[in-house]
Amino acid sequence: MDKLLLLAMNGLIWGLIIALIALGLAIIFGLLDIINLAHGDFFMVGTVLAWATLQTTGSFWLAFIVAPLIGFAMGALIQRIVIQPIHNVAALSIVATFGLSLILQEGVRITYGPTPGRILAPIQGTIPMFGVDYELYRLFAAAVAILALGGFFLFLNHTQLGTWMRAVRHDRDTAVAMGIPAGRVYVLTFGIGFALAAVGGVVAAPITTVDFRGGVDILPFCFMAVIIGGLGNLPGTAAAAVLLAFLEGVIQSVADPTVARISSLVLMSAVLLLRPQGLFKGLAR
Amino acid sequence: MSITSIERSLWLLLAAFMISVPWLIPALINGFWVSVIAEILIWSLFAASVNLLFGYVGLLSFGQALYFGFGMYGVAIGIQDLHLSFWPAFGLGIVASMAMALITGIFAVRLTWHYFAIITVVFSLIFYFLALSNKWLTGGDDGINFTLPPTFNIGGFSKSFTDSTFQYFFILATVAFCFWLMHRLIASPLGKALVAIRDNDVRASLIGLNVYLLRLIAFVLAGFLAGVAGALFAFFGRYASASYMFYHVSGEAVVWAIVGGAGTLLGPVVGTTLFIIVREVVSTHWEHHALIVGAVAILVVIFAPKGVVGLWNDWIARIAEGSSTEESGVTKLRTDP
């Protein structure tokens, strides 16, 4: 029972982090029609930025400012240099982002090195919860993820830029006719998408490893969340990420992680075939 | 010299080159490159299976590695566990991948575009994880190594892949045969129907084509191409491994096919050749060749969105246009005294 609670709790928190990353993927996917195969590597760059900030300044906390800023700048730059010239053609975007993924991974391998590293959690200690000693940092990570998720939805629904993003996604031509600078909104969206993944990377860095291949496993998981939540349904995506990771955590308490992963993949196939509009269509919008 | 005769002589040149590879390449560079070319042939066939679906039916599959993996494991399990000889094992690999393509295709081709791309990658991931966890059958990431039985053993005459020249020609013949089949398929009424679906599936169904069934047929045929490639690769490497079923392998084939030119017969060959040669040449000098591969992929889609072969075709079309106006100019001079 203790093990179940522990793994379910871990799954829940991991799901909140994945939700952040998957939201980044979902806005890029929904707005630009780009299948972003480099998104897992955006997360990985976040973990490396956390490590680099800790190494150079001695402070892990600074990474929460540095990583989103660098992530945003890199994302905006990538949109201008790589994504814009291919005019949001989805098939070409797959090739371009695949190339991008190779470059990011190899770039990190050159600079950071090929061996996975670990970051010591900046908050040490445990807290007794439901009869188990739970790591304090994980609770902190959950809080940060929830804050970032809330902040993103506030931004999307209550600021002018957020309204522009929703408008361009809804109907690009009308949005342009109303005077919304669609080109700049694209750049912004890609930047925010990268920044969200980078924040996810910073939060996750002390929980997982810092590794140039760290994004490879994250990518299918994020796609699952986007699909199960429903394409374009951002709250659905976040909910699906939490649900999936929680379920995997629960299944892991009785079977090995591969079985857990297979069952969520099977769930996803069922959703794709039976409810391609996503699980939560009509519930949240 | 007209365009068609130039193209025909280029084909003859290519054929002559491919046949002379086992003697020409060791003399020019070294013997290692013969096996690189054999590998290019196998991966070209794999990229062709992506191209058949994406370039001719408009379905972007991100899970072709599943059928490649089934081709590999069909051969490896057939030889190692079932003690089959060469040809039955080859057949088992192909049948296994086609059967898998049929089973998954029944579900997958109900979906299109983004959803199709994602369900194919999901199916391949499911079986990737199954292969990883069922080590007793698949050997997991370490894979299965096996000793290769002879290909022909008639009387005292025996030929096997230990003879590298024979290995090369066997791969060349098989791959060339598959490409010939694909060429025939594209020219056939079935191929035309597939292209009609690619261009407009609603219109295709309105003229009476069974879109679902045709897509399923194309999916199984693509599974066949990937399965043959996987079986050949198992013979070539004498092993099978779950790592070849991961989505990165499918992704590479998509990149090769699109960079070479989707919807053209030779596109996948050109793309695969380009990437494998870049990889082999750069990796001997520089450890971080993936940077170059990534940059090439990005540059090609920015500057040649129709792929290398698409660029070539445009160029040919422009020359043909130029020469035809020239000819009409000439005739005009003659008819006007």
Description:
- The complex is a heterodimer of chains A (285) and B (337).
- The model of chain A has no long low-confidence stretch (mean pLDDT 86).
- Chain A has helices spanning 2-32, 39-57, 63-83, 90-111, 136-158, 160-170, 172-177, 182-204, 218-229, 234-252, 257-274; strands at residues 126-129, 132-135.
- Helix content of chain A is 72%, strand content 3%.
- In chain A, β1 and β2 form a beta hairpin.
- In chain A, strands 1-2 form a two-stranded antiparallel ribbon.
- Chain A has one domain.
- A two-stranded antiparallel ribbon of chain B has the order 1-4.
- In chain B, α8 (189-199) crosses α10.
- The interface between A and B is large, with 41 and 43 residues.
Topology:
The complex is a heterodimer of chains A (285) and B (337).
Chain A lengths: L1 H31 L6 H19 L5 H21 L6 H22 L14 E4 L2 E4 H23 L1 H11 L1 H6 L4 H23 L13 H12 L4 H19 L4 H18 L11
Antiparallel strand pairs in A: 1-2
Chain B lengths: L2 H26 L3 H26 L7 H16 L5 H23 L4 H21 L1 H4 L5 E2 L6 E3 L2 E3 L4 H24 L1 H11 L1 H6 L4 H27 L1 E2 L6 H14 L6 H19 L3 H15 L3 H29 L2
Antiparallel strand pairs in B: 1-4, 2-3
